[in-house]
Amino acid sequence: MVKKAEVINLNFSYTDKKVLNSVSLPIYENRITALIGPSGCGKTTLLRCFNRMHDLYGSVKYDGQINLFPDQLNILSKEIDPIEVRMKIGMVFQKPNPFPKSIYENIAYGLRVRGVKKKSFIDEKIEDSLKKAGLWKEVEDRLHTSATALSGGQQQRLCIARALATEPDILLLDEPTSALDPISTAHIEELVTELKNAVTIVMVTHNLHQAARTADFTSFMYLGKMIEFGESSQIFTNPKEQKTENYITGRFG
Amino acid sequence: MSTEPIRHRNFKAQAERLKRQDAFFWFIGLLTLGFALITLLSLIVDMAMTGWPRITQTFFLSFPSRLPERAGIFSAWVGSLCVVLVTSLVAIPLGIASGIYLEEYAKKNIWTKVIELNILNLAGIPSITYGLMALGFFVYKMHLGQSILTAGMTLGLLVLPIIIVTTREAIRTIPSHIREASYSLGATKWQTIRNHILPYSSGGIMTGVVIALSRAIGETAPLITVGALTFIAFLPSSVMDPYTVLPIQMFNWVSRPQEEFHVNAAAAGLVLLTMTLFLNGTAIYIRYLFRKKYKW
Predict the structure, then answer these.
(1) Are B73 and B201 within one domain?
(2) Of B242, B289, B267, B229, nearest in space to B71 by CA
(3) Domain count along chain B
(4) Whole domain around residue B174: which residue ranges?
(5) pLDDT confidence of residue B64
(6) Residue A83 and residue B200: Cβ atoms within 8 Å?
(7) Which among A204, A146, A156 has a CA at the least distance from the CA of A180?
(8) Do residues B94 and B207 share a domain?
(9) What value, to the nearest 5°, has the Cα angle with vertex A241 and ends A237 and A245?
(10) Among B178, B183, B191, beta carbon nearest to A99
(11) Does the distance separating the beta carbons of B185 and A100 come in below 8 Å?
(12) 3-state secondary structure of B296
């Protein structure tokens, strides 16, 4: 297994409040890594470090590294522009957030931001990423209608397609199914499992079954610390730490 | 204190009592609304009845005159339009840019707080203050004279806070997850503003702009201090020319002793009122269009 990224001793504070405490974990290429833990444990904060989303809100301090392989690029380094990082690392959010524009424009946006102008290339990329996101059949004849008219599950798959169109190195998923019904959730889970052949995925989830079903690796976080990292099969059947066991058996959290 | 369980209470009687309270407040609300509407309506109707006979083509195309039946509002409405045009050129770009800056670029610290508070205060200070400031600055310091340019810039400053505040409010209604979606795709701040923030808030911004301009059209006091004339028998040929505007013309006619001039004033008032009502109606329509267009 090849490492796609590695978090090393990451401390993160937000207006002088320490949220992440010396977190380290590897992210393996073409695998799904799930971050689990009770609310407020810092898993979403960790995820948003990967694309420097926190930089939008000022008064934040990163200390430590997230190295991106193969070129060992520390994406938390001050010399690196967050925009450059976000060009490499895509994100899908908790609540589907398509732009109030057409389906076509939603996906084209990431390409336009990167300076792509050629229409034939954009058209091709849109079809390709919608197919990857399993949405092409449903929307191929209405690409120019509003994206907000789609159902919640379709919107979320559109957001996945939008992220995929920019060919990210890593795709971040922040509780991607928490706002969806069970059928749409199953759809997305199936899709995420297929997608790992194309992209490395880091996913935050509250749903332990989802982590167990889809993720190759799982890391359990608690109070800003990484308690345990391992293959999902091991974490969910034979956790080494007492805290992990308590959490996955529902004794707290 | 009663120890009686809550479920033993007489809910029916309680509901009746609450409904009576409801009805009472409904009645009070209706009464105050009715009072305001009737007052406004009677003023408008009175003005319309007095002024309507004077609303003819010649009234619009005649210059002021010492003979009331030959006097018209040609120079006044042309002056109003020119002044508002200058106001738009000054206030719209400045106001929108300031709003965007404060909302998207400025660091949230004590200085931005102070600036924000001051802008809110500026929106509330009496308009004559702007007039005096403009007299000191535009007329005496910058030697712009009693011109359309001075008037337009004065009104521009007056309505600037309205545009800034509505721009900021319009931007703030865009949910942060839309912004984050754009940034997460690698967009820069300007790309995000240009492609998302501005288009999605343009309905709110345009509403604010139209309301600001309609306020500028009706404003009189600051223009008196910067020297709007009351008797202009020619059309301006440049922004440095003297001018008059509708409310000033109206003010002048009202202060004349002859009854016939009062009729002219009512007619001019009717024109002014129609213009502002039309602008406000446009603002409401724009808001309606954009509400339908952007949903999240």
Answers:
(1) yes
(2) B267
(3) 2
(4) 67-293
(5) 85
(6) no
(7) A156
(8) yes
(9) 50
(10) B178
(11) no
(12) coil
Q: For residue B221, what pLDDT is reported?
A: 86
Q: Residue B272: how many CB atoms within 10 A of its CB?
A: 22
Of A56, A100, A166, the CB nearest to B296: A100
State the smallest CA–CA distance between residue A252 and chain B in angstroms.
30
> Helix crossing, A119-132 with A103-113: angle to 10°?
120
Is residue B19 located within the same domain as residue B140?
Answer: no
- Tokens for A175, please give them: 């509780």
**Which are the contacts of A174, defined by CB distance < 8 A and separation ≥ 6?**
A44, A47, A48, A91, A92, A93, A94, A204
More confident residue, B109 or A120: A120
pLDDT surpassing 60 at residue B41:
yes
Which of A87, A97, A100 is opposite residue B177, by nearest beta carbon?
A97
The domain limits of chain A are 3-248
Would you call A166 an interface residue with chain B, using a CB distance cutoff of 8 Å? yes
Q: Is B180 an 8 Å CB contact of chain A?
A: yes
Asked if residue B148 and residue B212 are part of one domain, the reply reads yes
Name the percent of chain A lying above pLDDT 90. 85
Closest residue in A to B291 (Cα–Cα): A100
Instruction: Look at residue B33 and tell me if it is in a domain.
Output: yes
pLDDT value at B23 more than 80: yes
- B33 and B144 part of one domain: no
pLDDT at A224 over 80: yes
Contact A148/B at CB under 8 A: yes
Q: Are residues B46 and B75 in the same domain?
A: no
Same domain, B23 and B73: no
Q: Are residues B272 and B234 in the same domain?
A: yes
Residue B106 falls within a domain, yes or no?
yes
For residue B61, being part of any structural domain is answered with no
B104 assigned to some structural domain: yes
Q: Report residue A167: phi and psi, to 5°.
A: 50, 65
List of chain B residues whose C-beta atoms are within 8 Å of the C-beta of residue A58: 107-108
Higher pLDDT pick, B42 / B296? B42
A51 three-class SS? coil
Chain A residues close to B107, C-beta within 8 Å: 58
- Nearest CB among B107, B183, B200 relative to A56 is that of B183
Q: Is A97 on the interface with B (CB under 8 A)?
A: yes
Q: Is B293 on the interface with A (CB under 8 A)?
A: yes
Q: Which of A48, A75, A86 to mutate to test the interface with B (most CBs of B within 10 A)?
A: A86
Look up the CATH number of domain A3-248.
Answer: 3.40.50.300
Residue type, B237: S
